[in-house]
Please model this.
Amino acid sequence: MIRFSNVTKVYGKDTVALERLNLEIDAGEFVFLVGASGSGKSTMVRLMLKEMEPSAGAIFVNGTRLSSVPRRRIPRLRRDIGCVFQDFKLLPNKTAAENVAYAMEVTGQRRRVIRTKVPQILDLVGLSGKMDKFPEMLSGGEQQRVSIARAFVSQPPILVADEPTGNLDPNTSVGIMQLLHRINRTGTTVVVATHDREMVDVMRKRVVALEEGRIVRDKVKGAYADEV
Ligand SMILES: Nc1ncnc2c1ncn2[C@@H]1O[C@H](COP(=O)(O)OP(=O)(O)OP(=O)(O)O)[C@@H](O)[C@H]1O
Model:
């Protein structure tokens, strides 16, 4: 589903963010990318979204080599990867429902589909009573739920989250992780970059640990928590 093949990313002249990295994530997996600040997590996320190109090596998403995707087809590619960020990235002048609807509009979905799906997805993330609230009227956890709803409303095969709980308190974070887990159970491949070790241990999922742009551990479900 997602494959990094010998990927190196160098920023500028000599900042090596990833070094000959190999990783394979199968369809339906839930994978944490962990590592200290600067270890390369966000770089991996940005490469998966084709926000930039690797310096060497190749990235495949759904069997497609990203470097062969022309610029004009990037929007189509992004439809297959929902993304969630630490700072939610909601439009402040739109309500929760409008934020989700807008994401569907820009990908060309029909009005009728949007009208049906928006309430359904907001209900799924536990926000049916807050559809008409603007982001500033919502808590951080609620805002993140809106952004997850927005990322997932078209049921992409992959959902990528970069520090989704970075701005949230521990209890709220657990709720967000449980939501991502539920989304994963519907068959969506979920990749979460985080430095929240406690959360990672609780979740008992595959954990890929990065250090200075290299994978130093790759543990399947549960094994990681037992070791540390
Ligand atoms: N746009 C950029 N230009 C130059 N160097 C960059 C850029 N983005 C990241 N880097 C460098 O690449 C390395 C990896 O950064 P990256 O953001 O991928 O790490 P990270 O694990 O996501 O860190 P954090 O947890 O702090 O977000 C770091 O040394 C960082 O300083």
